[in-house]
Write the structure tokens for this entry.
Amino acid sequence: MLSGVVIGAGERGTNAYLAALETEPSPARIVAVAEPDPVRRRFFGERFGVDPSARFADFRELLGGPSRADFALVTTPDDLHVEPAVLALERGYHVLLEKPMATDEAACERLVEASEKTGRLLQICHVLRYAPLYQAIKAVIDAGELGKVVTIQHSENVSYWHYAHSYVRGHWRNRNASSPMILAKSCHDLDLLYWLAGAPPVRLGSIERATELCEENAPDGAPERCIDGCPHAERCPYDAVAMYRDLTPLLLDLRLARQLPPGADESGPEEGPPRAEGWRGWPVSVLSSDPSPEGIERALRETRYGRCVYRVGDNDQPASQSVELLFANGVNASFTMHGGSHREGRETRIDGTRASLVAGFYTLEQLAEITDHKTGRTRRLPLTLESGAHGGSDPRLFRSFLNAVEGRGEPLTTARESLWSHRMAFAADHCARNACVATWETSR
Ligand SMILES: NC(=O)c1ccc[n+]([C@@H]2O[C@H](COP(=O)([O-])OP(=O)(O)OC[C@H]3O[C@@H](n4cnc5c(N)ncnc54)[C@H](O)[C@@H]3O)[C@@H](O)[C@H]2O)c1
């Protein structure tokens, strides 16, 4: 059985990929973990059966000696990817690295070089390639059903509350301290466009719009923290008490996904929608490891997740950004990312010389229809819903990585290919801030 180590036992390191190990028979076991937060470290160690002597506070301790396992899952914060990943490759581990690879292009290239020099696999977690929906779309394009692809219009509709959680109050609120949202959130989408277009980009332009969620727009009388009796709580969609204690936005998103009528009983069986009380999953897991009412109240009083969304102070991620692209084979793509959607999801439209495809990727729902130009007939792609984060993509990606480590197949992308999504994201950030256009030589 394969063995692995985990560097960064946070949200992704604990909850995204390793669900694939909790099946029988398990394809791999985790033999060591590095995580500075003692609560997370212990929780992870107990959940995955890591011996206490192999639980470390820092990746340098874990990677200090000879290799302990076949692979390393690196799920540290954005600005701490390069050092542990390069060290792990040099120590002989195959590496599964969270996106973004790094926060600048030279560091991304350093990672690819380390992988090629050591001959170890480096796979970047571009999970969307593993979504049943996008795999089916790619197969339709490759089979020629759409004819020649002319345009791709794609949007990432981040829900208003996910945006507030991650990009206003959370880890990614400040682009210099973490990374630009177009990189952090949407390098997946840029990778998808590159993959579906089937060629590297040659030209890119971008425009962004600043966020509304800043001090000057704070409603009169709003306190510093939502829990301190905000007079606007009933009408404010960003009320932190509703978001984290009552889970209202999450439950509304799930209701839309399940078409539950308003007022339906949401407590349900275990497989059903979460109960607000005691919910341990995302986004609550990010602000507290104690999901009791007291634990949530403490987090609302003490962490930045309880702050008035207009009063965070150092958030500068855009409310929306659009990216226009031309690929080397003539495909013209347009991508919009924004943080104002009623519902979390992505929408894609691909128009070819023979047919058009319209697709949606939402919480608990993936759908796509193709209409043929000549016959006018529409067919719906058969898609089954899978469990797991990102519509089942995360465990699928992890299983594919494990297969590749065992020499049983190739991942759907290489680290060198992943450079393109990052180049596009860096260029989009630069072009939006400097009102310019980026170009690449086709031969690069
Ligand atoms: N592929 C995806 O779809 C996807 C989705 C969300 C986030 N991400 C990416 O995953 C990464 C992790 O995100 P997250 O939400 O899990 O963040 P997180 O903050 O929950 O987890 C990161 C963990 O790394 C730990 N860490 C910090 N310094 C360390 C060190 N020196 N040694 C070992 N561990 C250390 C932190 O304590 C934390 O627990 C980020 O880069 C993020 O952008 C990817």
Summary: The pocket of nicotinamide-adenine-dinucleotide is lined by residues 7-13, 34-37, 40, 58-59, 75-78, 80, 98-99, 125, 127, 171, 184 (CB under 6 Å).
